[in-house]
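Re: the 545-residue chain
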Amino acid sequence: MIGFMLFMMLTLFLTVFSSPDEHTAREFYTGDRTLPAWKSAMALAGSFTSTALLLTVTGVVATAGFDGITTATSMFLSLGVLLLLARPIQLSGACTLGELLSLRVPGTAPRIAAAVATLAMAGPFLVVQLTAAGNITASLLGFTGIGVQKICTVLIGCLVVVCGLLSGAKGLTSVQVMAVTVIGTAIFVMCAYAVRAFHGDVDTLIGAAAQGSAHPGRYLSPGGTIGIGSSSRLDFAGGQLALVLGSACMPHVLSRVYAMKDPATARRSIRYAAGIVAVLCAASVLLGFTAAARIGTREIFSGQAHSDGALMLLARSLTGGTGNGFGELMFAAVACALFLSILSVVGGTTLAAAGALARDSYPYVARHKRSGPSDEVFTARIAVALFGALGIATAVFLQGHSVGFLAQLATTVAASSVTPALLYTFRWRRFNRTGLLWAVYGGTTLPIGLYLFSTAVSGSPTALIPTADFAWFGQSSPAMVSVPGAFLLGWVGSLVGRRRGGRTQAPEEDPLAVDALLLTGRPLASRAVTPQNPSTPLPGMHRPL
């Protein structure tokens, strides 16, 4: 515990003092845009590596086998979607989702829609990360009670929020680089012990893992976590679709693309980050096999309804157990790695939410004009504090409940709202204001509404409210409904918008802006930050393109 606290204090010290004394608004949201490709790649990998990758994937592989491998693969494949969108995102000069969506359709409405979608993604994801932080810290202290977990959630949450409040994105970049370094080192050491424990015989390891899993007969067959029926297979496929399309479009991941200095650097950085994430995914699968073989499903599920504790249990088991000093050191090292992961993800999520509130909402709703740079940074700091306080309060209230589905909810909202909006914005010239609003609002409300009436919230022993049953939606993941529905809403809305306006676009729409961006590669930073005159054409460009 002393080692963990010293490491945490050192990390927060470096985070705060690596940031500049004064921030511009862009620096506060995105940080330094002069980083080389390798450093941007490490920061992106640190932002992408959340507890969902480290804890959930390891636990699902340990208990269900093939489904965990599929989940790890889906998370890796999502970086392909980010690679597809990297060039236009970086050329846009944007630093919030609202500025991205207002490229083709300038005005207030797209920014408000983007802010709603950002908060709908960032809020649930923040709660999951803070809950995991409380559980890990309480476990490090040797306690399992809900009261201690709530206290730890408040303490860690306050430290993380204060860190983001003082440092901004530039200080957070140092944490993300440090996070992927520490996580990679700890995971490498654990993998070395895992291989050594089975003398390098992978077949023996997988056979032992199958015997220790929940379903030994079909450990390497699909359906271990959800059953083997056709509806269950469809449900699982929906979850993987949400991971592939949504993980790359989460606000804290897109923020790393905003911070890259040019399209070539962005593409190189994403390719390097994909290599790092691929190694971490493969290591999580190996550690999941080892956890099933060394610990077993019965002990992993002991006292809890999920398998996220498999990695922490394995850290002690591999190095001699709780009575061994090196085992305690390894346990503390894994806890430090997870703390860094939570700090980087929570910090990025909080800053993205602050950008949605301070840059996309407040100037247009409260004051109807853009504030000055210093006023915007001040407003962003207030937004960080308010959003963080609300997230901490919600995490404390839900501590002890099954909140793992909130991470799935966040990625499903990203897959259903952000991905269709960005693909249509950059790839379909006829996409207009009505289609954008229908896609974003529909893609946000559909998954939230379906999740409220799914078995993830009620109607099952592992639900958020296990004593109630109002689940009329039979699947635990609504992505197979919400993602196609959002694409359909964007298409139908664009048709309706054109029919209403005839051949003339609405005054605030400028469909040639994105075409100029894609054809000429001209950065649109000047246009992205001047909402007072949204119909002004690009510098050097004329409407008859």
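The radius of gyration is 23 Å.
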